[in-house]
Every structure is written in C-alpha cells, then in structure tokens.
Amino acid sequence: MLGDLAGMPTQQHCQLRQGLGLGPQRVLPGLRTVRRRWTPADEAGPLKAEQANTFRSASYDEVALAEDTLMYRVVTVDGRSNGEFWTREKPLGPLQAQLDLALHPEWKLRDPDAALLVTKAQATHYVQAVMPKGTVIYEGAAGPQVGAIFSESSLVGGGQQVLVRKVPVEWVAPGLHRLAP
Question: How far apart are CA 152 and CA 82, in angstroms?
Fold first, then answer.
C-alpha cells in the first residue's frame, strides 16, 4: 500500500511517482501562477454559479500550477476518489475536515425509495493525487454551507478549497487513508 506522500524525502517520492508512471518530477506544493481572481463583481467566471458559491463570497483564484502539486480529497470509504473538490492541506481528522471544508453529513444521501434523508459522515477517509504542472485549478476559502433539512445547521467553512475539473483516476495515488477521530 502506498504510504502518505507528504513529508517523504524527495528521492523516495520520485521513486513512487515513477512506480505510478508519473515520471521523476519533484512535487513542490504551493508553486502556482494566479491567472485571475474572480469575484461576484466580475462578469461570469469560468465556474458554474453552483461551483462558485462553494467558495466564500463566491470569490476564487484561477490558477495554473507551476509544478506538480500534491493534493488531498476527503471522502467516505465508498466515495469517489477523483471528484472535483480537493485541498492542498492534509486533513488532520474528520471533524476538522468537516468544519473547515463545510462537508454536511446530509449531502447526496436521500433514499430514492423513501421520503427519508439518511445522514452519513462525509469525512472518514482521504486520498492523495499529484496534479501535474500546467493543470488549471480554482482555489479559495471554502464557503459556508447551510443544512438542507435544518436550516439552522450551518458549517462556516474557511478552509483552503481547490476545485479541479476532470481529475483522471490515474492522477490519484492508490490507497485510502483513514482519518483518525
């Protein structure tokens, strides 16, 4: 099983990248070129309104990665590992991830055969991916989310959020990492 890529010595990480067929480049988190900052005061940006509204004040940076960059995606045990929402920050635990990234436990869990909404923890595991140099991402503070059933149930967000369109499953390192409670 592939271990945590963050904090690995560069040589060891390069060997893992080669084993995944990703080449020998080094992962240098944080190197980026901001193409443009998008805010509600601008004309419509490249994101759909529902995507833009996941960022605080619907404001985000359009960024081209200057180097391969390690990112994390918080998921459930059966979650989609190559979805579009990621973060540069390794999640420390399920509660921290849920609060910082505003992950409501009631999302997408409506039972189609009943009028019930099933709640389920949304932050139990994480996956890692190396986003290649040149990848265009959208990043900013995660916006607040209000519960669908209980409108007084709100998560503030504020953690660093990255939206990446069309993440090929090949970018995602094998292995699901459990978030310690």
Answer: 31
Q: Is residue 8 part of a domain?
A: no
pLDDT at 117: 53
- Residues 79, 74: Cα–Cα separation, whole Å: 9
pLDDT given at position 156: 86
Using CA atoms, how far apart are residues 47 and 98, in angstroms rounded to an integer? 23
Provide the domain limits for residue 125: 31-178
Contact partners, residue 87, CB within 8 Å, separation at least 6: 71, 72, 73, 74, 101, 159, 160, 161, 162
Assess if residue 1 is contained within a domain. Answer: no
Q: Per the domain annotation, does 44 fall within a domain?
A: yes
Is there a contact between 179 and 103 (Cβ–Cβ < 8 Å)?
no
Judged by DSSP in three states, 58 sits in: helix
| Span 113-134, average pLDDT | 77
pLDDT tens, position by position, 17-53: 555 544 444 444 456 778 899 999 988 899 999 999 9
What is the domain count for the chain? 1
